[in-house]
Amino acid sequence: MASLEEAIGVKLFLRSGPRVRLTTRGAELSGLMSNSFDAIEKLIASWKDKESGRKPVLLSISSSMAAHWLIPRLFDFRLAFPDVDLRFELIAGGVGQSPVRADLGLRRFPETAKAPPESHFLDEIIQPVAALDYIKRMGTLDQPRRNRTHTLITLSAHWCDWDTFARLAGLELPPNHKTMVFSDYSVALQSALNGQGIVLGWLSVTSRLLRYRSLLAASDKGLNTRATFNFILGDQTPVGSIAGDVREWLCAEVGKDVAKIGKGGRLHSFECHVLVS
User: Fold this and answer.
1) Which InterPro entries does this one have (predicted)?
2) DSSP-based three-state secondary structure for 9
3) Cβ contacts of residue 225 below 8 Å, gap of 6+?
């Protein structure tokens, strides 16, 4: 590190005993070097892919969608795309409408924004969901068991908390309830799957869980925000690339979920009273 500083004539590190931290210019150089190393890594990976005949597709989705929606389908994906190496760029929070630097990315488009029609994955539909054993013990939000206190699982610093959902969907929350707060939606869903409470379920993530009854509707109330989730091709993705075929497969899979959910009955979601905000 000292040799590097001497060679360029700029102080890059601040030293305090055994601790070392970057200066402002050191942080700038670190970011540039990280991007360079990433570019080198991608280039070498592309060389290997060309030699092996594999077709890599980098997919940008939320960590919760990867864990609860896509990974359980990877066997089917490999049957459909035996020559494709699916790689992930995972987003810890909401996917938002940020640019897609991957080959293919799921992004949220508010009602006022337009997305290519062929990119549509699913409308943003939100509904309270819980595991069957929880509903057996505690009842639903519409029909709670007497002398039982519901636990509402929520995300910290998210635009749609329980109070907001209740106001928009016309749901009366139980006056006395406990709360569990998580910063990661994947963990919040896992808590609900473990029977620990009721969580707000985004259908774009929970469709498979509802289809196979791992989670059930915990209320007849639901909310369609008029926003949509869309799979957008990256700016550098060539027209006619395999990423387009992957997008069609992903959209077809969620379509199968929705078709099955619609036949499931009251506690299997979708035959709920969905309000449009």
Assistant:
1) LysR-type_TF_proteobact-type, LysR_HTH_N, LysR_subst-bd, WH-like_DNA-bd_sf
2) coil
3) 111, 124, 125, 126, 160, 276, 277
42-81 pLDDT per residue, tens: 666 656 556 555 789 999 999 999 999 999 999 999 999 9
Measure Cα distances from 129 to 59, 195, 204 in Å. 27, 11, 13
Q: Where are the alpha helices (DSSP H) in the chain?
A: 2-8, 24-52, 63-65, 74-80, 132-138, 162-169, 185-193, 203-211, 242-261
What's the one-letter identity of residue 74? L
239 and 160 co-located in one domain: no
Residue 117 shares a structural domain with residue 241: yes
Q: Are 124 and 200 in contact (CB under 8 A)?
A: no
Q: What share of the chain is helix, strand, coil (3-state, %, to 5)?
A: 40, 30, 30
250 shares its domain with 199 = no
Residue with the two structure tokens 């060389």: 47
Q: Do both 213 and 241 map to the same domain? A: no
